[in-house]
Amino acid sequence: MSSQKKELGKIGERLAADYLQRKGYKILHRNWRSGRLEIDLIAEIENIKIIVEVKTLSSDEMMEPAANITQIQMKRLADAYAYFADAIDYSGECRFDVIGVLLVDLANPKISHYEDAFFPG
């Protein structure tokens, strides 16, 4: 992955975290890892853990950023969440969200939040 793409991803994740915080979510972790598995953001609202995949694009020539999540990525997120829940001994409710960040104009990013975007398994 190019350094420019990594930097774009970091900007998108920061904007997504800021967006969630403004909506009342508590950010618990950024870039939580277990081996090769990673969760972009882990948030919480109303005692529900929210697993967030952030998709960032710099061009609107492609589809909506959140539409770029694949079945393989969904499986990896579910696997990563299983490790996370085990690590903190959590058996409560969770939700998988996707946040799309479109950065055509850096001064005016477009953020789309899809709650319950997918159900793993």
Word description of this protein:
It is a single chain. The chain is α+β, with helices and mostly antiparallel strands. It has a single domain (3-114), classed as Trna Endonuclease, Chain: A, domain 1, CATH 3.40.1350.10. The chain contains two helices and five strands, in the order αβββαββ. The chain has helices spanning 3-22, 71-87, and strands spanning 26-34, 37-45, 48-57, 94-102, 110-114. A five-stranded mixed beta sheet has the order 1-2-3-4-5. The longest helix is centred in the N-terminal third of the chain and has 20 residues, at 3-22.
Produce the secondary structure layout.
Blueprint (H helix, E strand, L loop, with lengths): L2 H20 L3 E9 L2 E9 L2 E10 L13 H17 L6 E9 L7 E5 L7
Parallel strand pairs: 3-4
Antiparallel strand pairs: 1-2, 2-3, 4-5
What's this model, at a glance?
Helix content is 31%, strand content 35%.
